[in-house]
Design goal:
With 142 residues, the chain is an alpha+beta fold. The chain has a single domain, classed as 2-Layer Sandwich (HIT family, subunit A). 32% of the residues lie in helices and 20% in strands. It is built from four helices and five strands; from the N terminus they run ααβββαββα. Strands 1-2-3-5-4 form a five-stranded antiparallel β-sheet, covered by helices on one side. A hairpin with an 8-residue loop joins strand 2 and strand 3. The longest helix has 22 residues, at 58-79.
Amino acid sequence: MKDCNCGYCVGGEPLAKFGIKICDLNVSQLILFKEQSKRGRCIVAYKDHVSEIVNISDEERNAFFADVNRAAKVIHKVFAPDKLNYGMYGDTGCHLHVHLCPKYKGGDEWGGTFTMNPQKTYLSDEEYAEMIEKIKAALNEV
């Protein structure tokens, strides 16, 4: 099931407003969040347009969280954060997804929850491409 108004479902311009697809995982897709004030921030979005974790089977839920875990391992490997925050929202874009937000001691917002979109740090296309290549390489190792 897809929603033609959802960036996670259709990709293209709707997704490009906030993210860049890195790759497909088992039951989800891994997306690099464009706003990179938390270096390495990514999103794991479920393959189908469902709003709630209770809308999928136990098997699919377990596979989804296995994808989240794999992505978290990659973020730890590539970016070495001191802590990784996990955020599941979706009040407005009702598509099941998890924000993986690396936090660094002494850095901005350490000790508190992360800002959804602080609009502070955007990178060049080359910098995004370099991050994506590092993430893809690490995915093959975890």
